Amino acid sequence: MSEPARARTPALAPTFSLGRLVPLYLAQALATGATTVSTILASLVMSSLGRESLSGLPSTLISASAALSAGLFGALMLRSGRRVGLGAAFSLGAVGAVLGFLGARAALTPVFLLGAAMMGAAQGGYQQARYAAAESVPESRRGTALGLLMLMSVLGSFLITGFSGGVEALGERLGTSAEVAGWLVGGGLLGVAALLILAWTPVRAPAQVTAKARLSVREAFAVPGVRPTALALATAQGLMVTLMSLTPLRAHHMGVEHTGVAALISGHIAGMFAFGWLTGSLIDRLGVRFGYVGGSLLLVLAALSATLPGAVWLGVSMFVLGLGWNLAFVSGSKALAQWPAAQGVTDGLGYVAAGAGTLVGGLVIARAGFPVLAHTCAVLALLPLVSAWRVGRG
Fold first, then answer.
1. What is the SS3 assignment for 234?
2. Checking CA distances to 67, which of 13, 75, 349, 379 falls within 20 to 30 Å?
3. What start-end ranges are recorded for coiled-coil regions in this protein (predicted)?
4. Sign of the alpha-carbon dihedral angle for 275, 276, 277, 282
């Protein structure tokens, strides 16, 4: 083996070490739990504040703030490293969650919305942890690394949904609802995540020593395959957040209690993350085109099944919605891991789609009903098929 080859080999040898990646995975798991216990149910908080016609506004602010911050956090991570950027994002989210709790408890809608906006800005940063995981392994195993990250994330989400009784008890002790108390719990989880990321030792990513990492945003998006990848990621993110955020409101209108809504969310989170160990390896073996096609078809099925009568179909819809998002998201993230300049901007596009979807979706539900929104989402869910057609097997 030549000296240059020998020097490069150790850079990949430790990259898939569990000891190196566990702090990153655990921090992301806690962040997922924080999102589950707070922002997903933000529409119910707005309803309790007497603003049901604006039930989609918190999610819109979250998505808009994430869209604005994603590129900034991406640039920060390229300049100062993943640990600095992720630590700042988790810390910002912790402050925003506590502020959202204080605003909701005091019935100060502007303060609650400010906290939601800060949470969104934080998500624009810490959701890029998946690229840190993907960069830490050889390209042939990036789907597996992303899948493992998702599997770890589901633990945090299930922990908090399984603790819904404790969140309700906390709300009673504080003289508020479980949905409002969840924001305080979310702040605590993000605070712990910020501490965990300090214990993470990033490896030098292979992408950082290649010419691809030095491309500008314009140059990266000019590369064949990057734009179709961005389309698939943005579509999957926008549709998933829209239906995820507004389906609990539909369930509430159907008379489903808080524990029932928590069960719907648990099923959705299971679809999103629990099968990452399988979808990641399948994408490594079959290619990103498989993920785009499968994700698109499942997103269509999720939207259509949400319109069927009965809470059981809502549960089916939420699970399938998560699984369809998983396939498209893991595929797109794997493909984009080699183009750092396009990562933050693409995440921003996804948040724009999510923000527009939740804002318009809330208005559509108020004026035309949930089925109209769901059928529109089913049509838009076909867009990743365009991505599958435009990209290679990859």
1. helix
2. 379
3. none
4. positive
Find, among 195, 188, 217, the residue nearest to 83 by Cα: 195
228 within domain boundaries: yes
Q: How far apart are CA 270 and CA 274, in angstroms?
A: 5
For 42-68, what is the HEC assignment?
A: HHHHHHHCCCHHHCCHHHHHHHHHHHH
Copy the structure tokens of residue 386: 């365009």
Q: How confident is the model at residue 173 (pLDDT cuts 50, 70, 90)?
A: confident
Does 50 score more than 70 pLDDT?
A: no
pTM of the predicted protein model: 0.75
Confidence of residue 394 (pLDDT cuts 50, 70, 90): very low
301 Cβ neighbours under 8 A, 6+ residues apart: 320, 324
Total number of domains constituting the chain: 1
pLDDT at residue 202 greater than cutoff 70: yes
Q: How confident is the model at residue 203 (pLDDT cuts 50, 70, 90)?
A: low
* CA-based radius of gyration for the chain: 20
Whether the CB-CB separation of 289 and 225 falls below 8 Å is answered with no
Task: Give residue 149's Cα distance to chain centre.
Answer: 12
Residue 10 included in any domain:
no
Range of the domain at 365: 20-200+207-390
Sign of CA dihedral 178, 370, 312, 147: negative
